[in-house]
Target: SMC hinge domain-containing protein
Amino acid sequence: DFQAKKADEEAQLEKIMEGLQEATAELRAQLEVAQTNLMVQEKAVASLQTEKESVATTVSLLQSRAEKAVKTRTQQEEKLQKLYADRDALRGTVSDLETHKNAELLKNIQQREKIIQECVQEENKLSVAIREAVTSAELAKATLQSQQSRTGGSVLVHKLMQAAKRGGALQAAGVHGRLGDLGTIPSEYDCAISTACGMLESIVVDTAAGAQQCISFLREFNLGRATFIALD
Model:
């Protein structure tokens, strides 16, 4: 009986063990599924943690950049304010310089205009002096030429008058003499009037035939040329 009871108990124990194994296998399967899900969840958590850290890093970087940008903007605004102040100061300086420069330029222009006026006046004086000198030179030249002409003309007239005397070659030519000598001209004006009035140097004769005789006489003795006025 003991053996039968033992065998029976062993059979029951084996059934229990088989039941436990089946139950354990199901639990192990559930455990494996749970472990697999846990691993997936852990990976997801790790990925989220990585993303969180990346986002945190990005946020920190953006905050740093934002702070730097704010600081840079503040510095730029300060520089801009300084530039505005420097610009206003420079405008004031430029305005002062322009005022001073304009005053200096006006003074220089006035001085130059004064110098130009003085130069113009001096030029006018020089022009007048030059014209007077030229006039005096021309008058002196004309006077000299007239004197030279009259010197030669006096010889010519003297020869003609000698030949016109009784018994001379031009006795019948009717020579009266130089026109300027036939009137009364003050000696101090004789040269000027003779220069202005060339006809006063002409020789007055009675007829054109007498003038032709005088011309032939001048040519014959090579006494020069003369202008004759015939009264006929």
